[in-house]
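Structure ticket #2291
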Amino acid sequence: MKLYYKPGACSLASHIALREIGGPFEIEKVDTAAQKTDSGQDFAAINPKGYVPVLRLDSGETLTEGAAILQYLADANPNTGLAPKPGTFERTRVQEHLNYVGSELHKAFSPLFATPPLKGEARTAAEAKIARRMQYFEDLLSDGRDYLLGKAFSVADAYLFVVANWAKPTGLGLERWPHVAAFVDRVGQRKPTQDAMRAEGLIQ
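Resolution: structure written out below.
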């Protein structure tokens, strides 16, 4: 398998999942602005959508969309416990979290990465939208659970970790959401997370 990624982007969640699984895989960095991979391939030919992540399977098939890739990896490796068994309520809860992170929190952050940067009322409105969505997870984690499902780490935690972490480079910070901040620290201390971030040049 090969994962096409951009350092620190949402593709990091898929990278973390692959490290959690521990099997063989390759990674290749993508310059999404230039639509070129590190090896000089035309990224638009790999993913016409133009963004990461992309997972190329050994069969030659490709998967796009982070939430779909995360669920595929969990299902293909059931012994890892990265998602509850399909058909269970707990599995549906993971899908609920993945959908909310992807469609609401992730998309709410997108304007803060715009060029030129948002300013004034537009910035304030974007920050308020993020804050409402972050507060949902702050309230959820306030009962003392380690991860979104409780004690068990899942692919939804990998996705939330990556997106919540964007509060730091965007200048929002996590001080308003101490339970989310503790969650981010907790996931960030996992060896697969550290290995993925190190491989992407995000930490030493």
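Closing remark: The mean pLDDT is 97.
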